[in-house]
What does this fold into?
Amino acid sequence: MIAVLAGGVGAAKFLRGLVDVADPASITVIGNTADDEEFLGLHVSPDLDTVVYTLADVVDPETGWGIANDTYTTLEQAEKLGQSTWFKLGDKDIATHLLRTRLLREGKTLSEATQAVVEAFGVKCRLLPMTDDRIRTIVTTDQGDVSFQEYFVHRRQKDDVRALRFEGAEDARPAPGVLEALQDADAIIIAPSNPLVSIGPILAVPGIRDALVATSAKVAAISPIIGGRALKGPADRMLTSLGHESSAIGVAKLYADILDVLVLDSEDAGLASDIEALDIDAVVTNTIMRDAESRAALAEATLKSIS
Ligand code: GDP
It folds into this structure.
């Protein structure tokens, strides 16, 4: 059994490679839900949906999120009706949020609603939200505190991030099956995701980090930082403004208590000895996932490093 901690686009690409080299039925994905928010009255789970759409091969290849060839008729009409429409929801995408929201309103848990979405899209991996409880990432900027999506989408990550907090985390419980998946795993992978706002909230759910420390399975992470920079998104600036190093070493330090292996890009081969000095095995390979072959090769190299 393989357990994977996952954020959005980077993680989804990695998982798409992983299912090409491992039996999807042996994979449990634990997804970040601290970015979930209500738009147009619908419960949107951006990271979970990015994983589902990518694994179902319906994801928009240009953006890495949303559904390919989607249309925006509903959003355009919502705007005419005076709704707030800065969060882009396509018509097909909205159908997913309608399904999830209906199930939640009927009293189902987020785990149950997620399971329904996974089945509807024919995805063969197990996908668990990190928690069924409400955790919200709050980003402190010089303009004040904002929700993650406000910072990420509406304000286009232009603010320097001064602090992060995961509201509700202290009282949250891991979703059913999460701790068992970590305990039963033969191998655990932290996908290439933003360590602070995608993996950070998962590790903030009480019990999850402890389970990763305690497990006898080997734990590997893939560095999302290459040559000091994020391939996309604000991870590099966020690491720096929050006092971490924007490098594979900064990533290794954030995970130092749980990691056996860090997979880092060939461009960062020179950092391997510093990683090893943290008592973490460094595996150097090409980690840029441009196509199906490079995704599968990265998944294969990661699995090999911990099997
Ligand atoms: P997002 O915020 O929805 O994009 O989700 P994630 O948190 O999963 O991913 C963001 C991080 O993934 C960024 O820091 C990227 O640098 C990293 N990333 C994206 N694509 C790749 C890739 O092909 N290889 C590696 N190593 N990292 C990647």
The mean pLDDT is 97.
